[in-house]
Amino acid sequence: MRKVCCVIILSFCIAGAFAQNVAVINGRPISNKEFMWFYKKNHSGNASATYQDLEAYLNLYINFKLKVLDARETGLDKDTAYTKEIENYESALRTQKRISKSNAEYSFILNEYREAVLMFNISEKKIWERAQNDENQLRNFYENHKNQYQQSSFDEARGQVIADYQQKMEDEWVIGLRKRYAIKVNQDEVRKLAKL
Questions:
Q1: Total domains, the chain
Q2: Which residues on adjacent β-strands are paired with residue 31?
Q3: What's the CATH number where 63 sits?
Q4: Signal sequence span per UniProt (predicted)?
């Protein structure tokens, strides 16, 4: 009986915690506050959004978080250049008088920077460097998609070929990450956040 009560209580605690999150990725929650802070920041401070707007943005945000998770699992968050950059940024952030360290916005700003640098570093490693430096793969991609380049030669279309190839690699990477990590979206919470 005692074990059953513990399981029931734990289930309610987990459900209650999930109810305050728009999603959980591999056990890491994305809180409503975090998500809406980022949404407003990237939409000129506007928090008024439809369910479809929030759902689309959440999808992008989940992809971002998956890349950050991949960067951490690759060990990029332990890189000395990365840790030094974060220390310098945090030091600069602390000198700003308008944001105190106890302010929730301070945490969001610092976390945003940490994760953006990780996402940039992993994208550079997995996508951008490979697309720039693998001439054979670029030429193969061009040959397989020649009709997209309006009869331009490889050299004439090179910039667009690189961009398209990068997009293809990124799409495949995100698909792989979505298969690799558990993602649970709380649609009810997303609906609650929608204003229209």
A1: 1
A2: 21
A3: 1.10.4030.10
A4: 1-19
